[in-house]
Amino acid sequence: MTTMTLFHSPLSPFVRKVMVVLHETGQLDRVTLQAVNVSPVNGDDQLNQDNPIGKIPALRLEDGTVLHDSRVICEYLDLQHVGNPLIPREGSARWRRLTLASQADAIMDAAVSTRYETFLRPEDKRWNGWVQAQGEKIRRSLANLEQAHLAELASTFDIAAIGVACALGYLDLRQPQFGWREQQPGLATWYADVTKRPSMAATAPVI
């Protein structure tokens, strides 16, 4: 029985993160998907109700409350199922995994910003220095994941691993020339494995 509405765009990595959580926690049948097409200069009136900044994903609960920001939505959903938590409930593990998840979000932010700058902004107004800086953020973050966090990512498919997987998927979608696999072969091997999970296969973006 559906009790919630998820405002989504299937190409958003942040939306995909929420969708993977829904699959992994067995809650997909509780949600109706409401497609929206938004950009920094194009909003959606229905989305903006009780979500004044117009962020996606946004989740409308049964009582009409609207949650926005993928981090908030994922934590809410993680408290609604009876399986193993995707976010550690307490202790140092909680903060380690949330920090790693934040790093994945930062990769997504930089990649989405690059997409806006190189695709939506008029060509004569594009800021190449901005694009370069976003790329450097992504490369530093991926190098750090390769050098310091592979074992953590491989230990469990939790909120941190989900975020990293969705970030890598978005890079492949929007910047296939980025060439991250050559620089991070361990991360590439891990990613090839997790993309076989049903939740990742079901949410793979298609243009």
TrEMBL record:
<dbReference type="InterPro" id="IPR036249">
    <property type="entry name" value="Thioredoxin-like_sf"/>
</dbReference>
<dbReference type="GO" id="GO:0005737">
    <property type="term" value="C:cytoplasm"/>
</dbReference>
<dbReference type="Pfam" id="PF13417">
    <property type="entry name" value="GST_N_3"/>
</dbReference>
<dbReference type="InterPro" id="IPR050983">
    <property type="entry name" value="GST_Omega/HSP26"/>
</dbReference>
<protein>
    <submittedName>
        <fullName>Glutathione S-transferase</fullName>
    </submittedName>
</protein>
<dbReference type="Pfam" id="PF13410">
    <property type="entry name" value="GST_C_2"/>
</dbReference>
<feature type="domain" description="GST N-terminal">
    <location>
        <begin position="2"/>
        <end position="85"/>
    </location>
</feature>
<dbReference type="InterPro" id="IPR004045">
    <property type="entry name" value="Glutathione_S-Trfase_N"/>
</dbReference>
<dbReference type="InterPro" id="IPR036282">
    <property type="entry name" value="Glutathione-S-Trfase_C_sf"/>
</dbReference>
